[in-house]
């Protein structure tokens, strides 16, 4: 286990260097200095990000610096809560997808366009096997063998990649993401594995006088029951949350791993294409764009929370509070916090 302290110390060092760089000087904020190793004779994504070829900083670069600052400041202000774990284990790195060829590490967060980003990572790592991300079936994008994750490397290899590769993730308004997860996993009849695994457990614990059919099938979980399950202390003592409703800070560990880019679901297309531009593939690879009619919206989320008591709303906000603060999402206007 002591080997994993090395990873944690390295990530801490990177974060500390970033914090000590000061807010005013963007170029001084490069936590790796100016001599990042070049790959194949070209500039690495980290060089493009921290030492851009153009002298004047773009509005995009400034925006992403502000997002990095927000994460750093939140980690510092909530250190007792955000850094309970001093040591990262292999299991903590299973969401970090590695692209060797373009020196990228992507931490995927379910319900934040992760299917399309996994498709893109398959194109980037496929060495010509794929060209159009949308030709890759969604279920194939989620086959773990199709992408390499950071936990599959040795300790020195992990340390090297954490230091040298550009690390990024995408986030979403926490409660909108939660409602999206609920709608997808508990209201779609085809998701029988989730109904059996979680639905039956939720109904057994949260529904009085449940029918035998509901206890057996678990396919009609109400949103109020789902919320009650999430805030139940027994739930979190029993096992970690499923990745679809786990907090981003628990999935990607942004207080231990220094992320160079924080993309947002609300600006998904431009943020994604900025990553691809930095990786040097923006001229021929773009983030897939299509209107998803079933997408969970803010208005939809507001409706789902109307039947949640203020007590439960307050408890649920506490569960996801760090995600709200870290990624600069304000308290939703529809919440009735106690």
Automatic annotation (TrEMBL):
The organism that produces this protein has a lineage beginning with: Eukaryota, Metazoa, Chordata, Craniata, Vertebrata
Q: Which EC numbers characterise this protein's activity in its record?
A: 2.8.2.-
Q: What is this protein called?
A: Carbohydrate sulfotransferase
Q: What is the recorded membrane topology of this protein? A: Single-pass type II membrane protein
* Listed GO CC annotations: Golgi membrane
Query: What positions belong to coiled-coil segments?
Result: none
Signal peptide segment? none
Q: Biological process GO terms, please?
A: carbohydrate biosynthetic process
